[in-house]
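Hi,

I'm pasting everything inline rather than attaching a file, because the server keeps stripping attachments. The sequence lines come first, and each chain or strand is labelled.
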Amino acid sequence: MARLTINGKTQDISVDPNTPLLWAIREQVGLTGTKYGCGIAQCGACTVHLDGAAVRSCVMPVAAAEGKKITTIEGLANGSALSKVQKAWLDHEVPQCGYCQSGMIMAVAALLKEKPKPTDADIDARITNICRCGTFQQVRQAIHAAAKA
Amino acid sequence: MMTKTPKLNRRSFVIGSAAVGAGLALGLKIPFGASVVRAQDGSPEVTAWVVIRPDDTVVIRIARSEMGQGTLTGLAQMVAEELECDWSKVKTEYPTPGQSVKRKRAWGDFSTGGSRGIRDSHQYVREGGATARIMLVQAAANAWNVPVSECSAANSVITHKPSGRKTTYGKVAEAAAKLTPPEKPALKDPTEWKLIGKSVKRLDTMDKLTGAQVYGFDMKLPGMLNAAIKDCPVFGGKIKSYEAAKVTGMPGVRHVVKVGESGVAVVADTWWQAKTALDALPIVWDEGENAKVSSASIAAMLKEGLDADQAFVANQNGDVKAAIAGAAKKIEAVYAYPFQNHAPMEPMNATAKYTPDRCEVWVPTQNGEAAFAATLAASGLPADKCEVYKIHLGGGFGRRGAFHDYVTQAVLIAKQMPGTPVKLLWTREEDMLHGRYHPVMQCKLVGAFDSSNTLTGLHMRLSGQSILSDVRPEALQNGKDPLVFQGLNPSGDFGIGYTVPNLLIDHAMRNTHVPPGFWRGVNINQNAIFLECFMDEMAHAAGQDALEFRRKLMSKHPKHLAVLNAVADRVGWGKPAPQGVYRGLAQMMSFGSYVAACAEVSVKDGDKVKIHRIVAATDCGYAVNPAQIERQIAGSFVYGLSGLFMEECTVKDGHIEQTNFNTYDSMRIAQMPKVESIIMPSGGFWGGVGEPTICVAAPAVLNAFFAATGKRIRTVPLKNHGITLV
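And the predicted assembly:
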């Protein structure tokens, strides 16, 4: 059993406390926007926010997330109003297959919270998600656009 | 806007399909007479490609798969161009392979690979749109009782010019669907296009920003169980035994089942439970003879082929042996390219539900028809009792087109628990160990020069794997695999861009037990490195500029030359580069398009490569959506340069050694060069976009690396030389 607060909603879920947060979010809570890509915190497809900071949920036991504010891609927009990162992503048509983009967007949203005007060097240091389609050129443009918005 | 799988109203569907003659290859003439084929919501289908709802929503059917490359939007643009519909009201949906079989392939080929999505279907999808427009206008003219020549259509509105009367597609669709389609609809001249060639926004972006996009991996069905699988890590090996009793009591575990001869799966309430139990399951493999194979033994076999007497010839003119024997100077080099895994971000998966009367599969696939065939074979049920529903792909890159091993496995598991839907998801580790790898290849090149340093002969001997001999042996030509020579053929979609007086390009086929596949770009990836780096070597040996040396050989290849000139002009070839920056060129013809690139790099400490800028030109004939082409070009450098610097699957004891992104790395944003695209469609042909540019990425950078360091690197990946991309 674990008590999780996800996207503002607190719920008790029946899960082994060692289960990675990613799988609790997907399988017990039923939010499937957060993706599995590697299971060893290499690719970032599973990135969610824990008290506002980006974490790779595939290696974090669900027990470690109890009592914290978890935000997933589904909770980033305010109702139907997209967040500024999502808006920039839409304007710049960033996604190709889109599979890595939930994690990419969550990583960028956390970066902008900490550094509202990131330099290219900040982006290079902090955004380390893998995208096999190769959207990086658009990702960088969209980050700068979101920072200006 | 989500692409949904349409469900046809069964009754009207039967009537509609019964009315279709057997000789109508593409089904564009559906429907005949007064029988109307309807979508699930009852809206009439005007042609197989176009359903129009009473509220004027236009639903365009897309047979090819969307995996990020933008084909969904491009194909819809082409139908809409001829349909003259309101683009803002366009939605898309995938027809199913089962419907395609019933309707005699009304939507043509489902296969989405070889950069063929648009270039192989442009004709019939535009005709599908044009046919629907003609029928809609005719229906309006009939209703008004006026000559059709007095009516015109634009933006989903039909106007009777003399009277000014107007109606909409939604109002006349029902009547239009009952008309007899025209025989051969005339298509617009390209100069009249309004939508093709425009960078309209993709139709599928929004759901990818909010987590709403459903991938195969996200499938949920009532009562569904989850499966994790391990297949014998040595290709060709089998399962000897496993101790199911050790894990059956673990949380959530429902079944432990054998899958074929070589796999075992744990089926549980959740996938994490299944995976946890599978990791605890003791398994004994019968690895077989292949366990003796290693990267070294494979390399030795290929090396032998470099000088073997027997080889398949693809391109030959003059007498290369005599030219080499009589050369005033000759140079020789051996290159090598490794196995590589596609590693799409979404690991392989499929969801299957089986009963003795019906088998259904939900799967991210590049080829719905091939997934359907795998479903039939694994279920043992006939086509009318099977169906496949295509789901958006989290990347494909060639892994999900010709191979549906994961579909076979999912059905074999579901068969052992009839009535229960099962979602099979591979771990990344399973994905890395059971790929269909980029073929392994070596190449020996010999260039001959006369006393004035003019190139007189070139011999390229390829030695290595054939994809076709493993995947489609019936496509071999007297034993020869024509695909091996992509980019090196005398002419065609993969024609070489040089004329050499004495030329021989041949292939000693050396196959391994490691299964090869179509890795985005396929064989031209290594061929471009071999040819374009050796071109640089030859220019250097002849004491000539790399661009000028090429130009002399390209006078009979104006389109190849045009893209090369375009990048050279843009980058300022011949003028000094910024301090410490060095340039490299490459050009090829690939998947029907002409591509070239110039890379600008600097190298620190001899092994830290920074790519400052890449200029890339593409002549794809017609550019349907330039903004999406730009994205495919930029993305091609991520795929191609990850391959060049980081990716190699090595073989030890018969299995692949790399199991995840920690040992099989992929480029990150910090390493991404600035890519400037030059899209220069010259018209008159349709070339591909998703793959062509990948092949010029590596040789352009390798040539720039040589310019910077004087070191010629001939084996990939560069990490084996201690060289990193920074």
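The longest strand of chain B covers residues 593-604.

If the labels don't parse on your end, tell me and I'll reformat.
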